[in-house]
């Protein structure tokens, strides 16, 4: 449950920061009087006074989440290519490999229980 909740919170955080959010704060006499999301804060006084001011903070990620590109210089690869081919040829052995069982398999009853506990995905 906690895992699902943390995923939801992180998804909302990413959504809010990519879409953007505006926070408006109203100060009167240097003291914070009100905070509004997505709209401008209303003045505490009926008329404009010198001690009141609003601060607007815009929260938005300016990244476009695009994959950066890179180029590969293939001039150094002709030197390493024969060594890689030889390495792959050595690792692929065409001889028949003898399989050795180092331990006995579990009894049939345990095999049945283990096969019931497993999930087979096709």
From TrEMBL:
It holds the Pfam family DUF8199. It comes from the Bacteria. InterPro entries: DUF8199, HYC_CC_PP. This is Uncharacterized protein. It comes from Ancylomarina subtilis.
